[in-house]
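User: Hi! I'm working on a homework problem where we have to compare a predicted structure to a textbook description. Could you give me the structure for the chain below?
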Amino acid sequence: MEHDDPPESAIVVLLHDIQTNQDRVAVLAKNVPGVASDSIELVDAARLDDPAARDLLVEASDKGAETVASAENVGVHELGVEYRPYRVLFCCSRGRSALSGCKWVTRSPLDVSCKLDGTDCPMIDRIRHASAVPTRTDVTFASGGEFCGAWLYQPEGVDRPPIIVMGHGFGAVRELRLDAYAERFAEAGYAVLVFDYRHFGASSGEPRELLSLSRQHADWRAALKYARSLPEVDPSRVIAWGSSLGGGHVLHIAASDPGLAAVVVQVPHVSGPVAVRSMGLRHVTTLGVAGLYDEARHLLGRRPYYRAGIGDTGSGAVMIVSDGLRVLRQLAGGSLTEADLEQRNRVAARVLLHMPFYSPGRGAHRITAPTLIQAGEHDELTPPSASRSVAKRIPGAEFKTYPCGHFDPYLPPHFEGVVVDQLSFLEKHVPVANRPDQVAAK
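Assistant: Happy to help. Predicted structure tokens:
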């Protein structure tokens, strides 16, 4: 199975039966602006285990190709190949597609039918709408005399949408899969602000990779203030979204910010003592010694002593998981070079002296915004029992668990279920009015 390199404007069409469905290509070329027949590449979905077909998808992804999927019962995610930055849509599907487990799927599959002449196809308007990619702009906002770098996603055709402010976890930067969530939210009609904390990623601050709980709280307040100042969004409908340590920060901030429209936290850090017990006395003692050493160096005016944020078993990293470095590379998905990944996967160890005493779940009873808490049933870093206890103290909070560990919500096959639940929660409590696809459907 041989293919020429796809053109940069290519659309890769996954066909369930490549012989009998070729006429669907003509439908796309006729109905989707800017799509020509010679820019469309066919791939037989039944042969995706063929290395040549897999290589074609990877090459197309590298060139930024869009993908229109027309397939059913295709377990593409099982191939274990990174497909970002694909945007995957569903056109002319003959049934509910099994592609929903893929991390690069950006729309929920629908049961639809399609006539080959392109008329009366409920997906054509969705394709036209989705061909206009939500705008992502690099922005900055002030915080504590420095600046935070951020991505601002703006949905197409939505007047003054709600805005979701997103912050990552312990020592993490936005490139570690926050873009996957943000794209889904933007395509659903939400504006999204994804920021790096000071001292990390695109934000300023020296020394690098210095994790200060108080400074990150200040960064959250600055991010929310900036989001509310944007003229193109609805400042009364601001949503705070956090993961892991960022989830703990969101709970802390939400307890004193009654103006939030909703709160979404996944695998959140809620209790310092619980985190200490889950990590084990021996590992915590080692990390405590590292924290004391770094604090001593700080008092002497020396450079920080760093510890890796994520690492394999026996590595001495702060968060130890099986195949930790492989997981880290999966989270990066090629968005960072190996050198950048190694450089950014570290924190100044002094924060480890404060983590055992940081329990943002204690003030959860003061949260008034609708709240969704998601936990992994096998999460050994932020145990679900602690999150469940916090959820019970928040009036009306929704609590959901998933059969996964701490890092699994970011990746397939669990990502899809997690983000769909988040979108359902947001649609219930902070709906987007007059989305283009809703208008088209009318």
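For your comparison, note the following. Residues 1-22, 27-33, 45-49, 60-132 have pLDDT under 50 and may be disordered. The CA atoms of residues 286 and 316 lie 8 Å apart. Good luck with the assignment!
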